[in-house]
Amino acid sequence: MGAMEYPRTAAEFNRQFSTEEACWDYLVKLRWPEGFRCPDCGNPKAWLTSNKLFRCGTCESAVSVTAGTIFQDTRKPLKLWFQAMWWVVGQKNGASAVSLNHVLGIGSEKTAWTWLHKLRRAMVRPGREPLTGEVEVDETFVGGVEKGGGRRHLGNKAMVVIAAEIRGKGIGRIRLKQIADGSSDSLTTFVREAVEKGGVIVSDGLQSYRSLPEHGYRHTRRIVEGRTKASTLLPRVHRVASLLKRWLLGTHQGAVSREHLDSYLDEFAFRFNRRTSQHRGKLFYRLVQQAVAVSPAPYAAIIKHVRGRQGQKYNR
Prior knowledge:
Strand content: 15-25%
Number of helices: 11
Number of strands: 9
Distance between the termini: 38 Å
Order of helices and strands: HHEEEHHHEEEEHEEHHHHH
Oligomer: single chain
Helix content: 25-40%
Shape: globular
C-alpha cells in the first residue's frame, strides 16, 4: 500500500497499523509529505535519535513527530490512537466517551472524553475552502444545551446559523456555527467566514441579511407568504437543521454544554460533508491528516470555560 493511501477494510487497517512503528511512519509521511523540514529553521537535513526524535543538522533542535499536533504529550500508544480514530469514523452517528472507552479500554471515561474532543478539533481542516456558488443561510434554535442566560439562549436552546451549498436539487457542503443573536453583525460575520466573496446568499426576509451586498455578496430573499412554509423556501438548511437535531438527540441524548456545542457542530459538518465517501478508510485518512495539522489542546484548556464541570462533563 502506498505511503499516502488508506485502508479500505478493517482487515487492511489491522495489517497496515499492526505495530507502533507503522503508526509512527504514517504520521511522519503525513506531516512531512515532501520530506522532513525543521520547524525552527527550515533545514531538511536531520538524523533520527534512538528515542524517535529528529535532530536538526543545522540548529540541532529535537523534533517529535507528535509535537504541535493533537497527539502531543500523549502517554498512550499511537496504535491505540489509530484504533480510536478508525472506530470513531466508523460510527455513522458519532460516538460517546462511554462507548469509546468500553470498546477500546482507553483507561477511563475522562480520557476517552478528552480524546473525542481532540478529534473533533481535528475535524476542522486549517485553511479549508469556503462554500461557493449559491448558498442557503438560515438560523435555527437547537435544544438540549446546558441552561443559561444571555442573548445566545432561549431557556435551554442555542441559536445556530447554517449555510448549505445549493447543488441542483441537492445539498453540497455545509457550515454551522453557534451565534450570539440574529443581528446583522453576527450573521454577516458568519457568512464572511463561511462563504466565498461573490457568492449568492439565499435567505429569508430577515432584515439582518440586507447588508450582505456591502460585503461583496449577491443576495436573494425568499419571503414567506400566505400558506407557504419556510421549509419549502429554504429546503436545504431546514433539512440540515432537522438532521442536526435528530443527531444531537439520538447520539448525545440532546445534552451538550453550550461551551462545546461548536465542537459537535464541527463533527456533524465533517460527517455530513463526507457522507458520499465510499470508504471508511478515506475518512480515517482525512482525520489523521488533519490531526497532525491542528495545534494541541490539553485537557485543562478544553474544560477551561465549562461551568459546573465536575461530574457532568465527560459525556458532553
